[in-house]
Amino acid sequence: MMRVKRPILLGMVGDSASGKSTLSRGIAEILGPERVTIICADDYHKYDRKERAALGITPLHPDCNYLDVLELDLERLRNGQPILKPVYDHSTGTFTRPEYVRPKDFVIVDGLLAFYTRRMRQLYDVKVYLDPPEPLRWVWKVRRDVAKRGYTPEQVMAEIERREPDAARFIRPQRAYADIVIRFYPPDGVPPELADGCLNVRLVLPPTIPHPDLSLLLEPRGNGPGRPIRLKLARDEGRPVDILEVDGHVDAAEAEELETYIWSHLPTDGLAPRPERIGFYAFGHETRHSHPLALTQLLIAYHMLYAAYQVGLVENIPVGR
Q: Do 128 and 178 meet the contact criterion of CB atoms below 8 Å apart?
């Protein structure tokens, strides 16, 4: 018997400028933007930028956020009910008019503290943590905050240093709750500021949700250290995990083969045609493409659609496990 339909919730956590928005846009393209609601958990800050400076508190601290309100709103969204969501304008550091949000089939929730409470973690169908190396995240944050938020590079680096104790205490421990841990990182010998366009990705896949079986695809050509796509068994923070690694220089044909394999395991009912806009990211005024990014977005979309299949939101998923 088909279960009662309800929205599928994806939680995505990472420190500031870790890539959450870029991932969310590509996932929405796969699922169909008209079927996706994106919620920024940073909208639940208690204080605006000037108030935080006066109080000496960072937005990474739980006391700087209405986490109880976020919890209640996540419950309403999961039950298919609308919310009146606060809106924080990052470009000005102030709050604007609240937004009436009615959840669509899929809800993506991204932010700094979206896994902080046990109740929040229980509400997500899929939990993703973004874990780039700190030097790379600093490059991304400086580039973004200077271009879009009116800071100087020196101001951004000073803010990163000021936030570090809260990041270590409150943000990074949330990694332990993720179903997928994503680390984009530069190849050996490439400095972070020159790494755009060649970033590798490392996906840590704990057995908390059923991941697709990718081993059959890798077997014909081996799984050695020289292979640009590698799957291995390992341990992460003491727990057994699968680790999928994709090099930034992966051949387009090989990457597209893996993309097609993952795509073939997605349900077809109600799914938009295969998007041509996945794997793209902004670099200044340019738009660039990354096969590791496209594969990461597809894998997350797979899990959201599999969760939707389990609750009867979509049908005819080719399980192929």
A: yes
User: Exposed, middle or buried: residue 222 (CB in 10 Å: 0-12, 13-18, 19+)?
Assistant: exposed
CATH fold of 8-310: Rossmann fold (3.40.50)
pTM value is 0.92
Contacts of 157-164 with C-beta under 8 Å, sequence gap 24+, read: 162/58, 163/16, 163/58, 163/60
86: left (phi over 0), alpha (psi -120 to 50) or beta: beta
Mean pLDDT by 10 residues, the chain (321 residues): 72 96 92 93 97 97 98 97 96 95 96 97 98 96 88 94 98 98 96 91 96 71 71 92 94 84 68 69 81 93 90 59 36
> Residue 45 has what DSSP assignment?
B
Q: Which two tokens stand for residue 37?
A: 């609601």
Query: How many alpha carbons fall within 13 Å on the CB side of residue 112?
Result: 24
